[in-house]
Design goal:
This protein is of the alpha+beta class. The chain folds into 2 domains: 5-247, Alpha-Beta Complex (Transposase Inhibitor Protein From Tn5, Chain A, domain 1); 248-310, no CATH class. It contains 8 helices and 12 strands. Strands 1, 2, 3, 4, 5, 6, 7, 8, 9 and 10 form a 10-stranded mixed sheet that branches. Strands 11-12 form a two-stranded antiparallel ribbon. Strand 7 and strand 8 (136-143) form a beta hairpin. It starts with a strand and ends with a helix. 25% of the residues are buried. The model has no long low-confidence stretch (mean pLDDT 88).
């Protein structure tokens, strides 16, 4: 097992609906572009991004994308962990990560064989995860499942499958008419409690999916400006750079109350109140509000100088 600090890489692809004539239809049957991103969960920085047409498989080149992300990490000994949805649920991908001693938790496709094994579990195999306010019960269980491989090998790694069962307390039906829903996660992390594993894998909703939300809602990646693929790829990269700069600004220079602030809040609480642009004697000047100078700018400059000195 690799030593060193943990780096959790969350991988996800976002569909961005568009009406451009050149756009392709996605699997949801509307025209869209795709924005794949890899977020370093511990820092909330986007370490890699790739613009794609809507009809490209979400799992295409995911090994390359993650490899590039690892190469972009600062020098050091890193213990790599990867979280993804079912886009990464490919035997070759999982074996590749396991061979590098990278830990992963990936949503598994509910193939008939896996679904059958989950439904065969005895009732005492299920353990309570949590009961939600509306009476929805969530339970988990380890599933003794070994998927069929195209090429069987004696030394092929075995992975752990953890099932999640969702049901209503009173036996009521969900909107789709079912009474029970099943989901599954495949992982090479055998030591974790099942409930903790599910919570850890689903925590990517607060990292890469949060980055998706900010880029679309607060920045400008909801609308791509061109019919040219390269121009749209550059547009996505520009928004990611802006997002990362704001994340660094929040963590390195601003007070703690702004560490989780969205760009909209920063705009109204910091940027637009920082001062006033005035013209005087042929010069354009920024007149800074004294309270902002004392509360934000001066402390922020000191923090940045400290970081610069620590980095040599």
């Amino acid at each position: 097992m690799n030593s060193g600090s943990v780096v959790t890489l969350d991988v996800d692809t976002q569909l961005v609906e568009t009406y451009k004539a050149e756009a392709q239809y996605c699997y949801e049957h509307y025209k869209a572009y795709q924005a794949m991103k890899v977020v370093w969960a511990e820092t909330m920085l986007v370490v890699n991004d790739e613009f794609r047409d809507g009809n490209v498989s979400a799992g295409k080149d995911i090994k390359r994308i993650v490899d590039e992300s690892v190469d972009m990490l600062p020098p050091g000994e890193w213990r790599i962990r990867i979280r993804s949805d079912s886009a990464a649920y490919e035997t070759d991908t999982l074996d590749y990560w396991d061979g590098k001693h990278w830990e992963f938790a990936v949503s598994a496709d509910m193939f008939p064989q896996l679904k059958k094994e989950i439904e065969r579990l005895p009732e005492n195999a299920w353990r309570l995860w949590k009961i939600e306010d509306k009476g929805i019960i969530r339970e988990w269980a380890d599933v003794p499942f070994v998927p069929h491989r195209k090429y069987e090998k004696k030394d092929s790694p075995l992975y752990r499958y953890v099932a999640l069962r969702v049901r209503q307390r009173q036996g009521e039906l969900f909107h789709d008419g079912t009474s029970i829903r099943h989901y599954a996660i495949v992982t090479n992390r055998w030591e974790m409690d099942g409930a903790a594993l599910i919570e850890w894998q689903r925590a990517k909703a607060g990292t890469v999916e949060q980055a998706h939300h900010i880029l679309v809602s607060d920045l400008a990646s909801a609308v791509f400006p061109s019919y040219r693929h390269g121009a749209n790829a550059a547009w996505l990269r520009l928004q990611v750079i802006t997002y990362n700069l704001l994340e660094l600004l929040k963590k390195a220079a601003l007070p703690e109350e702004y560490h989780k602030a969205h760009p909209k809040r920063l705009r109204f609480a910091v940027f637009t109140v920082i001062g006033k642009v005035v013209s005087h004697a042929g010069q354009t000047l920024l007149r800074i509000a004294s309270e902002i100078l004392a509360a934000i700018i001066a402390p922020g400059r000191r923090k940045i100088m400290t970081l610069s000195l620590n980095c040599g």
